[in-house]
Amino acid sequence: MSSTERPATVSSLLGSISDVGRDAARGGYSRPVYSTAELDLRSWFRDEAQRRGLEVRTDRNGVLWAWWGPEAQDSLVTGSHLDSVPGGGAFDGPLGVAAALAAVDVLKARGVTAGQGRRSLAVTVFPEEEGSRFGIACLGSRLLTGAIDADKARNLKDAEGNSYAELSARNGVDPRGLGADPEALSRIGQFVELHVEQGRGLIDADPISGGAAGTGFPVAVGGAILGHGRWKFSISGQGNHAGTTLMADRADPLVAAAQIILAVQKTAAARDGARATVGRILPIPGGTNVIASKVELWLDVRHPDDAVTAAIVQKIHGQAQIAAANEGCTVSLAEESLSPTVGFDMGLQRRLQALLPGAPVLDTGAGHDAGILASVVPSGMLFIRNPTGISHSPQEQVEEADADYAATALADVLEGLL
Length: 418
Ligand code: HGY
Ligand code: MN
Ligand code: MN
Ligand code: MN
What we know:
CATH superfamily of the largest domain: Zn peptidases
Order of helices and strands: HHEEEHEHHHHEHEEEHEEEHEEHEHEH
Enzyme class: hydrolase
Bound molecules: (2S)-amino(hydroxy)ethanoic acid, manganese (II) ion
CATH architecture of the largest domain: 3-Layer(aba) Sandwich
Low-confidence stretches: none
EC number: 3.5.1.87
GO molecular function, one term: N-carbamoyl-L-amino-acid hydrolase activity
């Protein structure tokens, strides 16, 4: 960035991508990994990083690294993701990336220079954090850390039948290179991810000002990430004609699915702290005048205690078998991904609190790349206030003042850790 250029604010950086991947039908943004929208955001990131004199490299898992200083062991790394859920908000992912770019500007303005007498700083962008296209969340960070078998990842298929290997190859990432990368990991001395809060913790912690921007605590330090997993139910029945099949002669998998979804809600509501969701269901073939022959539905279960998560899934599975039998159908269950509850590195968490006096510590029910990295490198998170508390929705919100403050908060933390 030339010295004459004004440092960018987070809100101006986000404003420059606010039209990328807008989803007119769903509202919000749909930026699946390796889609035109997400590739456009990757180009935006490269341009903004290079404008700041950062060296941008793509590693063998398709993770982007923008280096300030030499690619050294034990560097300080911050970053997030640019892919989104279908119809997602503007901040989930991009806020952390934009704040990291703007924090580089803040550090430069303070005369801080990474890599010269201090550790190098890298800004990273992880692919497929949402798992919206290939079904497994944090796919890029799982590959980097070896948390997923590389062959399993290569063979994951999207709805159009493209494999992750094919999409990687089409975007300059050799699929044969996918997999654990200890050399890249050795460069991460500490990882800090800034993210929009996906809940009301900061608002509820600060009832006086009701979370109005510029008051109270707009930032929190991450405490722990709830364990969570994804399972896929496949329910098979008898496809048939909607008009010529009497009700008594049906084996309708969608009717079984409806009972399963109600069982999910009841089972989770009966367990304190449990969250269970069926957000995606696929009747096959999916015609208005056709009794489905098969239904696939995906279950997302989360709880602070991994044993409770397992018990909830087991109970739902039992109820699904009863529901299927009631309707003359069969049902199978496959586990797709499972992440244990993760507590962030306590030493780093205390450092973050010391660098952001007054910031509360908040746990989160949302998964993050920082949660995957936490199993192998000291990791931490910062959450920026979200007045609606809503996420994975166009109603996700960050006030402009809080978005711009995110750069300062992150710069304070990075300067303190460099
Ligand atoms: O699903 C999650 O919790 C994250 O947003 N990928
Ligand atoms: Mn996210
Ligand atoms: Mn998300
Ligand atoms: Mn017909």
